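Q: What would this complex look like in 3D?
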Amino acid sequence: MAILVDADSRICVQGITGRIGQVQARYMQQAGTRIVSGVTPGKGGQEIEDVPVYDSVGQAQAENPADVSVLFVPPPAAEGAATEAIEAGIQLVVLITEGVPVHATMRLRARARAAGARLLGPTTPGIIAPERTKIGIMPAQLFSRGSVGVISRSGTLSYEMGGLLSDAGIGQSAVVGMGADPVVGTDITELLDLFAADPETRVIVLIGEVGGSQEERAARHIATAIDKPVVAYIAGRSVPSGVRMGHAGAIVQGSSGSAEEKIQAFADAGVRTAAHPAEVVDLVRHCLT
Amino acid sequence: MRLHEFEAKQLFARQGIVVPRGTVTALPEEASDIAAAMDAVTVIKAQVLAGGRGKAGGIRTAATAADAERCTAEIMASSIRGLIPESVLIEEQLDIARELYLGITIDSAAGCPAVVVSGRGGVDIETVAAEDPKAIASGHVDPLNSLSLDQACELVAAIGIEEEQISPVADVLCRLYKLFTSCDALIAEINPLAVLTDGSLVAADAVVEIDDAALFKHPEWNPLERIADPRSRQAKQQGMTFVELPEGDIGLICSGAGLGMATVDLIADRAGEEGGRPANFLETGGGITRELMASAMRLVLSQPGLKAVLINVYGGINPIHEGAKGVAEVLAEEPSVPVVAKALGNHEEETWEILRQAGVEVVTDMATERVVEALFHRLSEEGK
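A: Here is my prediction, written as structure tokens for the whole assembly.
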């Protein structure tokens, strides 16, 4: 199995009757994802894309149990819906929604940890184990199966990286979006540990961006606990200080959160940082040979 | 969204945290009446969202009503760290014996709120942390529970204040924590919390920043009013991010912040004497429609001196073929500078067709490097 998921993973789609939920459920099915249930409160009893829809995750679990839930719900509904999934015993909750209040995310993170479940996101494209399953919004055709594990703060850069590696004939064991918010459910260090323990993964690619200190923490963790080669890329070298660049977490304050600090932290940990996305491919190829 | 001091103090007062008597005004002649009615030495504080406003001349002390009028007029006519004050807050001067620091923020690494207290208030907490770390006590709070009075007392006791002050300061800290959670704040800070000569506690300054993502729960705050740049304001209203970048001549539209920043970096690295610098960062977010993309094009094209536009989008959650129709719509309206685009993912071929029909140069290669190369090739062609 890939990290976190596999071809056998059974998926529940929360918000499946919404415009985005329905389209994305279809794309996931086309990528081979095994969707066993959908949930929209008040819309139970119908079928969407041949998937039975329930009023609650509890009902869905009683009839067609899932291991993973993926959420396409608007921000005001996100905390309630994700809490429902955690309380119903779902092991992996993938919160795609962008714009979830940080206080709600902190509570969800605490609830998931207390229940022994894992929360991915919010503001994540999800996770794809190419040619096996896709739980999220990545365009599956860009990815191919192989031995590189990719962790990304950005959604679209994870697509670009999957596409660049695949074009170069280098497949991926899994590509996972950690989420672009200041607080996320699963830390970068936990994802590094998962790839380090995954027998299919030979090289790890880490795509960071300016703001916060995740990359610095990742660098310290790599130096002490990860024995697989890691290649990094940091977006936002040229962005001005004090401006929030689209992601809630992407802001440089003074020198804190700057690309220079992150690149230096990686260099100190023996991790090579690519100047541009396409350069990652060369560095990965070097690690694989 | 950062609040003005007077707004934060209104929230404090509602939460039972004592603040100085004070009134807001933008008019010097009103300042005179306010100061006269207070019958005390007053402090006139510029209401601007800038740090270090005292050092920049934004805080003055006025002994008389006439002084208050003069100080208000001077502050209102000045620029504080590049910002023009919209008003001043006039407060009675406090009789301060000691200054403390109370702050609550979010620890991203721990994923929970962090409470910081210090016996050295009135100065930058980062400075205290660097010079005198023992003067600071901090702790995490379980987001599923509130800050308990016990935990608050423990923290406050650690900063070396008089025994009988511990419980009252801890009470203020608990009230501040309640405000922090009920307002969905990213930061709630009292610096300084003034211990007056009679032993009472007054919040002399107030910093509150509210999470933009939580504003749907707090409709009393309108972040759009605070965005000075009209294009950034319009973009935000439509769910996009627009940041103007200095001395640029290349308009940029990207879906996704990470991809946008990577593209800005690539263009900035290639820029030469003849130009080719990013003029803006525009991130569409995940809500692309025909209308949104048309709007994004108009925003970017409104920049004077633009030489070209680069579009870099992915069809993941975004229907890029719908977005392409918006681009085509704008290009059909008026002559434009050259537009180059990379658009990959779901519905890519339909998207390419629409864009090419509209005169856009489409690059189908995976790497953003290639579309940036195409852009610079066009720039050199146009320059000949």
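A: To summarize the key features: The CA atoms of residues 146 and 172 of chain A lie 4 Å apart. The first strand of chain A starts at residue 10 and ends at 14.
Q: Very helpful, thank you.
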